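Quick one:
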Amino acid sequence: MMSAGGRTSALVAITITALLWGTTGTAATFAPDAGPLAIGAAALGVGGILQALVDLPALRRDRGRLGAHRGLISIGAVAVAVYPLAFYSSMHLAGVAIGTVVSLASAPLAAGVLERFVDGIRLSRWWMLSAAIGIVGSALLCVSKASGPAGDAEATVLGVGLGLVAGASYAAYSWAAARLMANGVSRGASMGSVFGAGGVLLMPVLVLTGGALLETPQSLAVSAYMALVPMLIGYLLFGYGLARVPASTATTITLLEPAVAALLAVTVVGERLTALGWIGLALIGLVLVTLAAAPRRTTTL
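Output:
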């Protein structure tokens, strides 16, 4: 059984990850000439390959176990490739706050469905309460949008749809990595294989769309920041946490990301939130308090 200190350190690591991830939408606005596909492919494509390089010793040690779980790695890699393309496109169409909120608010539901119906895990009442609070808070953020870069209703609806795709893919790769770890693959090999393979899948997209990232020093700096800080460092921390808490808990904690993204969207990008939006931010903060107080009680059917 994991010690209280081990669980706390995992929660802290995933919280820091969420804070870093929350900066990505705002950072992308500093490369306006680069499209969302280029930003997404550079961020997670380059970041994923760098993660695989960092985890190369673990990948070599666990190559036998990895070979026995090619299906899980494939599922995770495809989800890694889909996630940034859908996520950054969602923010481009619906705005930083809305795109991030929808993507992250839908992830705990998808993760819970996977754990409940694929793994046979009965989700605790604490998790359901945390997810419900977070989803209500995220919904209030969506409703609160008064203005932003995408005022067109059609674009916003499409952005919300892509956000749902991003949330499902995020939950899928989190679940795949967690399953690999549960099957005896080390944390480094699990994250390195899933993100490395996903990064390779994103390379053709980067080649086709990434020219604008090289046109100015600012765009190049943005892509370097995205790949190295939120992606590489963020996912190293996320992998540490994911090895110690269930995927559903990890994805619920990362509901902090839309709160950070919304605050940055208001203070930096110039988007606006109504009173409902600020209430939503407070509710998302409450998710962290609820999870921190929750006893670890997850049972298998």
